[in-house]
Amino acid sequence: MPKALTDSVVKTLKPERGAISWREVTDGGCRGLRIRLSPTGEKVWAIKVTVGGRRVRHTLGAYPEVALTQARKRAADFIAAARDGMSPAEVSSRKRAATLTLATAHADYIEAMRGGLRASTIALKEGLFGDHIEPTMGYRLIRSIRRADIMEVISSVVTKGFAVQANRVFSELLALLRWLESKGYLDGVPSIRKKDLRSVGAAKEQARRQTLTDAELGEAWVEAAALGDLSGDYLRLLILVGQRRDEVRLMRAENIDFDNALWTISGKLYKTGIDHSVPLSNAAMEIVRRRCGNRREGYIFAGHLLDKPFNGAASALRRLQKAMLGRSAFTLHDLRRTCRTGLSRLGTDEQTAELVIGHIPQGISAVYDLHDRLAERRAALDLWAEHVARVAMQVADRESAK
């Protein structure tokens, strides 16, 4: 039987000369406890216990941060839990869950998701949590969260006027709780059905079909100019290029081919995961050049700091709608839909129009038709820019005639 370790013995333990693998020294004073030595001299406590007929090992901490007496105490807790069928990992999860707040848990969740999700998806998750979940229950311990708490969050989102977004907040909160359950921090997730959300006012999501009329489009273009250079240029470029709000908001000078008037969106940021090229009309390039000046790096829509992107998209939309006297309750994504619909109205063929907004071809075309139609897309967006200028001129003429 191995001898019981002492503080002095642990302190003087060293790896064997020429060692290339970890060495274990068993503590005779505590069953299952051992200290592991790396070839470079690091010392780590570990426990081996049998749970459900299976032998498992669990790390208890590094020496000297965890002293011998502390290691024995932790080991004794794990041994006692193993008799009840609980693994050391499960015991550690339960201990952490006892003091883990939802805000801290969400930070861990986001960090775990970073490798497998696009930056835009991570930003969306952080935004939903920071805007709607954290203010209501971020400080709460995860073990104390109940069904009523989740319903309170959804109700608060509806009260703010975001009846549709309440569904996405609910999905994000449940994704977090299910992740916590998978990590052993929760024993279960409260059961809530979609129809329960309706009882607190969450709206049923339906595919939007709204587009702006030519009169509304022209008015949006004209009124955007009065919102200030940054907000106005952002809204006008959204109208011209037909891309998603964050793709335009995070647009960088490094991704613009100024000589060929071509913007390339990296697949790391794009929804399809594939690089997407957007030909820029003269009107679009005018905005880009005005915003960049002589610089060829940094965000196109940057504030005072070039490394910080424009963060006022929602505010810009509200101000635009107010300037239009609320005649059209459109969203920023409706501008993208308006562009796509307008291309069809102007005679652009379906394949080209779909490629303009970055939709991947489906069916047999995706396999055999690999033509990028870049010239056709440029012609389509040039035609669209001419149309926008035309309807904006009509609005300006009507205003001057009053």
Description:
By secondary structure, the chain is of the alpha+beta class. The protein has 3 domains: 7-87, Double Stranded RNA Binding Domain, CATH 3.30.160; 102-198, Tyrosine recombinase, N-terminal domain (DNA polymerase, domain 1); 214-401, hpI Integrase, Chain A (Orthogonal Bundle). It is 51% helix and 9% strand. It is built from 17 helices and 7 strands. The protein has helices spanning 7-12, 68-83, 88-97, 102-113, 119-137, 147-159, 165-182, 194-198, 214-224, 229-241, 245-249, 282-292, 313-323, 332-345, 350-356, 364-368, 374-401; strands spanning 23-26, 33-37, 43-51, 54-63, 256-257, 262-265, 276-279. The strands form 2 sheets. A 4-stranded antiparallel β-sheet has the order 1-2-3-4, with helices on one face. A hairpin with a 4-residue loop joins strand 5 and strand 6 (262-265). The model has no long low-confidence stretch (mean pLDDT 85).
User: For this structure, what is the CATH homologous superfamily of the largest domain?
Assistant: Intergrase catalytic core
Strand order of the largest sheet: 1-2-3-4
Strand content: 5-15%
Order of helices and strands: HEEEEHHHHHHHHHHEEEHHHHHH
Tally of structural domains: 3
Task: Give a quick account of the main beta sheet: strands, pairing sense, barrel closure.
Answer: 4 strands, antiparallel
**Low-pLDDT residue intervals, each spanning 5 or more residues:** none
Q: How is the CATH topology of the largest domain named?
A: hpI Integrase, Chain A
Number of strands: 7
Mean pLDDT: 85
**What level of helicity do the residues show?**
40-55%
Distance between the termini: 101 Å
Gyration radius, rounded? 30 Å
Helix vs. strand class? alpha+beta
CATH architecture of the largest domain: Orthogonal Bundle
CATH class of the largest domain: Mainly Alpha
